[in-house]
Amino acid sequence: MKTEDKNNIPKVRLAVIGKANVGKSALTVRYLTRRFIGEYRSNTDLLYRQTLTVNNSALEVEIVDVCSCDLSLFPEEAIYWADACVVVYDITNRTSMTHAGELLQRVLQLRSQMPIVLLGNKSDLEHLRQVDEVEGRTLAIQHNSQFHEVSVAENSPAIYTAIDAVLNECRSVQNTQKTRKFSVSKMIGTLIGNTNGKVVPNTNQGGTVVVCHKSDLYKSRVLRRRQNFTATASL
């Protein structure tokens, strides 16, 4: 990850994946806007972009809501593009839980160190439950991911706890990388007498949602991460 915004606001990218009708879009909109959408269908990936205040500092967040149009296709490009992944299943649908397990396995095969959170949605429908909470928690432990059961419809506080934690984890990694780069830059700057002023970020930026054009959205970032992965695997 790196700071890509011209105002030096850190940027974190999340991929939200899961079977159709588990509530991925509703989850994303709920987190970003605190509003609930009951039904939402799309035949393409959607990109949500918003500048948020997380842990008392500005953070530019991009969330891609990955379309579940074809479950046979794993969203490899989205996983290479993202800094972290949110895997969602429906506690009233065991098939969605099985699919979530398959997704977790594939994500870790591609990005073994990627921060992941597993969310069991629709906890408000307890009378229709097919997946026990302990099953979700066990699956998360097996794949070294965080776990929460939530109700997007009822605005569970765990939604914000889970996603904020993943964003903070990504930003910690980002800050570590930035500190290392800054130390070298500062040394060079001292030698040549170069200093740079800081730009104050605009934290009042509103959120937007746009249709993803995959060739533009994923291309450079995916290619870079694939090259890094290939180089590492060949060692």
Describe the structure concisely.
Helices cover 42% and strands 20% of the residues. The chain is of the alpha/beta class and 235 residues long. The chain has a 7-stranded mixed β-sheet with strand order 6-5-4-1-3-2-7, sandwiched between helices.
General description of the model:
This protein is an alpha/beta fold and 235 residues long. Helix content is 42%, strand content 20%. It has six helices and seven strands, in the order βαββαβαβαβαβα. It has helices at residues 24-33, 76-81, 94-110, 133-142, 157-192, 214-233; strands spanning 11-18, 46-54, 57-65, 84-90, 116-121, 146-149, 208-211. The protein is globular and about 50 Å long.
Q: Report how far the terminal alpha carbons are from each other.
A: 22 Å
Which structural class do you get from the secondary structure elements?
alpha/beta
Rg over CA atoms: 19 Å
In N-to-C order, the SSE pattern is EHEEHEHEHEHEH
Number of helices: 6
| Sheet with most strands | 7 strands, mixed
| Overall pLDDT level | 80
Unreliable sequence segments: 2-6, 179-205, 229-235
How would you sum up the global shape?
Answer: globular
